[in-house]
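Title: Prediction job returns without error message
Component: structure pipeline
Severity: low
Priority: P3
Assignee: unassigned

Description:
Job completed but the reporter wants confirmation the result is attached to the right record. Sequence as submitted:
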Amino acid sequence: MRQWGIRIVLLTLAGALGIWAWNVFFPGPEKVIRRELTELARLATYNSKTGDVDKMLNAKKMANLCTADIELSVDASGYRQQLAGRDELLSVLTLVRSQLGEMIVQFYDMDVSLAPNHEMAVVDLTLRGRIPTDKELIVQECKFTMKKVGRTWLIRKIETVKTLS
């Protein structure tokens, strides 16, 4: 009877290890999308000690997380900006990084909604950021539309959401 107990424990451990390995090597789309957006926030954050080359490389990496026909529509605190295309986004990112000495970006409350075909997703989140020219913390609700291209998820559209304040 003792051998059966050992076999059941070993079988349970092997099953748990198999499930863990599957989740690590083949994560679900929601987990992949959250990881991509966390990486975007990490790339967007820099300080005064970050070199110019690193700032530009990270701007390029940020642009590469987007589709070629990315649309950006920002309407916050009286500031309105719309742009389309990865090249235009990259030029704006480069300009902002050359003008601002540092920036902190964090994403909170990510709510991922997958389309039925699992090829598109909408992510509602709260962006919190800080720039040296603004003494107040920037808090903005945003909506990211993600598109699956091959095995990766790319940002197709970013827009701010008007909230009651």
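Comment from assignee: result matches the submitted record. The longest strand covers residues 138-149.
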